[in-house]
Amino acid sequence: MDTNDLKLEEDYIDCFQEIANVAMGRAADLLARILEVFIILPIPNVNLLEASELKMALSAIDENEQVSAVCQGFIGGGLSGEALLIFNDTSFTDIAKLNKNKAIKEADESLELEILMDTSNILIGACLKGIAEQLDINFSQGHPTVLGRHVNISDLVKNNDQRWKKTLAIEINYTIENHNVNCDLLLLFTEDSLKMLKEKANYLLS
Amino acid sequence: MSTNVLICDDSGFARKQMSKALPEGWDIEISFATNGQEAITAIEEGKANIMFLDLTMPVMDGYQVLEQIKKCDLPSMVIVVSGDIQPEAVDRVKKMGALDFIKKPIDREKTKQVLAAYGIYSD
């Protein structure tokens, strides 16, 4: 790869990062309105990586922390991939308090599952919609699946190793201000999607 | 005399989109900054009569820029352009002295409306 190509890759990454930035803002807005909180938004982390590197890409989540995760496939406009929402298990207590309509009991497994599914539904749905709109395409979403509960990141990634090869990974870490809620939204685009993504980026960059 | 416009965003793609959304007949000198620190320097050099400011940036973010402008009474009219569209984000930046807020992705029509609303430019 000569320096020209490298420059080109940087431009694409920058473009994907900005698209993710706008999409994550919309998703945060939706969740913020529902929970009546302020969500702190980071700069999205965009990387081209091998599945084996995925664990390292999850920079916002500590390896020793227990997490629960949901994943949902998406496809449309020549693009496909998987969206993952990884929840820090310590977040459940605080997010349950924010769901005012729900009765809070300590360590309520079914309530935790409900929160996990609801939050992932909001964040994944809005984020994918935000990306699709900017690229002028439509995504169909698959059924959400619980990927793991109360596991650590290594186990989560290890158990699902065969699902991903080379991928474009967009990592967005959401934190709720003044509450102990932290989750990571990960969008993984398949290797085959890269060509179309670049085409779309070229159009936007021109 | 032409107006000095500064576009401050860490994304090159976003800076380009922003400069493309500015009205065509507007007599301006455009400068760019990739973070808040560069923006402050540009204001001090008189390059930012009007500034289009992103919020989420490394080194120094948009909120910090607004704080600094207020604290040191720096000469720049700020229009925030951000993907963070939470009502509270809009509220906060306006309270911190931003003239207005434009949602990303930026579009030409909205930019024109905001500039016209504050008497900055109208054709």
Summarize, please:
The complex is a heterodimer of chains A (206) and B (123). With 206 residues, chain A is of the alpha+beta class.
Q: For the residues shown, what is the average pLDDT of chain B? A: 95
Return Rg of chain A in Å: 17 Å
Helix tally of chain B? 5
Question: How many structurally independent domains of chain B?
Answer: 1
For the sheet with most strands of chain B, the description reads: 5 strands, parallel
Tell me the strand percentage band of chain B: 15-25%
Structural class of chain A: alpha+beta
User: Would you tell me which CATH topology of chain A applies?
Assistant: Chemotaxis protein chec
Oligomer: heterodimer
The structural domain count of chain A equals 1
How are strands sequenced across the largest beta sheet of chain B? 2-1-3-4-5
Give the name of the CATH superfamily of chain A.
CheC-like
Largest interface: A-B, 23 and 20 residues
Account of the protein in words:
The complex is a heterodimer of chains A (206) and B (123). Chain A is α+β, with helices and mostly antiparallel strands. Chain A has a single domain (3-205), classed as CheC-like (Chemotaxis protein chec, 3-Layer(aba) Sandwich). Chain A has helices spanning 3-35, 54-57, 91-98, 109-135, 153-159, 193-205, and strands at 39-40, 45-49, 66-76, 79-88, 140-141, 145-152, 167-176, 182-190. In chain A, strands 1, 2, 3, 4, 5, 6, 7 and 8 form an eight-stranded antiparallel sheet that branches. In chain A, helix 1 (3-35) crosses helix 4 (109-135). Chain B is α/β, with parallel strands linked by helices. Chain B has one domain (4-117): Response regulator (Rossmann fold). Chain B has a five-stranded parallel sheet, with helices on both faces. The longest helix of chain B has 11 residues, at 62-72. Classes of the chains: A alpha+beta (206), B alpha/beta (123). Chains A and B meet through helix 1 of A and helix 1 and helix 4 of B.
